[in-house]
Design a protein that fits this description.
Order of helices and strands: EEEEEHEEHEEEHEHHEEEHHEEHEHEHH
Number of strands: 18
Largest sheet: 5 strands, mixed
Strand content: 25-35%
CATH topology of the largest domain: Nucleotidyltransferase, domain 5
Shape: globular
Number of domains: 3
CATH class of the largest domain: Alpha Beta
CATH superfamily of the largest domain: ATPase, nucleotide binding domain
Number of helices: 11
Length: about 425
């Protein structure tokens, strides 16, 4: 058998924690070996607010994933979201000492490291520095400057910033759950890798990932990420509203939303009524579906308008920045009935629901290609992309009963090429965690 490296993506969400184990098949598609899911109790709006519960949920998800895949999990790639994430545009330049030599990766790295030194607000840290376009000696719109001659190398960057404490808390949870943190990726970027096609990214597209606690937005144009934002509410606030509006308990509200909910009140007749069992011998409650969809509709409009505001902030109205491919909805919240029509109605942009099957092997299970798993698939892809195919060690099947000490685990062999920006950042971050 050829060498296949197994990797793990861990999506720490507000409603669920998903550990996804997978490998690349011979056609370079992602094959999912096992998924572990647990209810996420210690996370609120994408931010950890109870360390102990989060550790337990992570362990539960990884144990289930291990049982299903028969693989022992040691290191994971994690997604980060939450209302503390913000992004900014920044341009920077370096003057090269020897303009007679062509620009190489070292120069780009120097430039990126320079951006990493930007002074942030107290308590903030740079998560990603993503180069957009380069300029060489004033010549603009260069996508790939390597191999060109030039004295002054300049670039526009998309810089993603997050709160140090939130990032450290996630690191702490993963360490305490007995796992190693491979790298951190911004969740909207992970989801977009799983759901969007290259054509859409070229044409211009906004990905809206409606999760439980947060709604993530990523905007692409000309194949480059242009804007990211995290909006601090998602599916959970809809459930809360149903709970309050209909005076029922959380569990029933969630079921009502999933089974009968619709984002478009016009669809329901006045006469459609659902009966909900009362608590402990009380009379059942009757709820009209029209009322239910009015409650949902009001909140969904609010979420979409927030997203649309971000799309306008990016400059969608400008002819050059127009998003031709419109909007792609993903995440658990995107499965709400008639949501696509409502989004089209509010924004006037083409909309589709995105499933993470763009890069998955053809025989993937129906349940794994649900929009709920977009982020997890994206994180798994990020974990697999880190490893070159030819250097992947054999996965060693480990019987599940015995505990294997971490140092005896099969470790991935590091590639010879330079560390990616991500890895350097992760290393710095790990040092930072160890000192803490």
């Amino acid at each position: 058998m050829e060498n296949k490296k197994i990797a793990v993506g861990l999506d720490i969400g507000t409603t669920k924690i998903v550990a996804m184990v997978g490998q690349k098949n011979e056609f370079d598609k992602v094959e999912i070996l096992g998924i572990g899911k647990s209810q996420s109790l210690g996370v609120h709006r994408g931010v950890v607010n109870n360390i102990t519960q989060t550790i337990q949920s992570i362990q539960q998800a990884t144990l289930e994933a291990e049982a299903k895949s028969g693989v022992t999990i040691s290191d994971v790639v994690v997604g980060i979201a939450g209302q503390h994430i913000r992004s900014l545009q920044h341009s920077d330049y370096i003057t090269r000492e020897n303009a007679d030599e062509v620009i190489d990766e070292q120069d780009i790295e120097t430039l990126i490291n320079q951006v990493h030194k930007l002074v942030m607000l107290p308590g903030e840290e740079i998560i990603h520095v993503l180069p957009q376009e380069f300029k060489v000696d004033g010549q603009a719109e260069i996508k790939e400057p390597i191999g060109m001659y030039g004295g002054r190398l300049e670039a526009n960057f998309h810089v993603v910033v997050g709160q140090v404490s939130s990032i450290r808390n996630i690191g702490r949870c993963i360490k305490s759950a007995g796992l190693e943190m491979g790298k951190i990726t911004l969740e909207p970027i992970a989801s977009s890798d799983a759901v969007l096609s290259q054509e859409e990214k070229e044409a211009g597209v906004a990905l809206i990932d409606i999760g439980g606690g947060t709604t993530d937005l990523a905007i692409f144009k000309d194949g480059i990420i242009r804007h990211t934002a995290v909006i601090p509410f998602g599916g959970n606030v809809i459930t809360e509203d149903i709970k309050e509006g209909c005076s029922i308990i959380q569990k029933q509200a969630e079921l009502l939303k999933v089974k009968f909910g619709s984002a478009w009140p016009g669809e329901n007749k006045e006469t459609e009524i659902v009966s909900i069992p009362g608590l402990r011998g009380r009379d059942p409650k009757e709820i009209s579906l029209k009322t239910l969809s009015k409650i949902i509709n009001a909140r969904v409009i609010e979420i979409i308008e927030q997203c649309f505001l971000e799309i306008k902030n990016y400059g969608h109205d400008d002819q050059k920045k127009k998003l031709i491919a419109g909007i792609v909805l993903t995440g658990g919240g995107s499965q709400l009935k008639h949501l696509k029509q409502l989004v089209e109605y509010i924004t006037g942009m083409d909309t589709r629901v995105g499933y993470p099957n763009e890069h998955l092997a053809g025989d993937s299970d129906e349940s794994t290609t649900s929009p709920t798993f977009s982020t997890a698939v994206g994180l798994l892809m990020a974990a697999l992309d880190k490893m070159p195919v030819d250097l992947m060690p054999e996965p060693q099947e480990v019987p599940l009963e015995q505990d294997v000490p971490v140092d005896e685990m099969p470790q991935p062999v590091a590639p010879k090429n330079r560390n990616s920006i991500f890895e350097q950042w992760t290393d710095k971050f790990k040092e930072f965690l160890d000192k803490a």
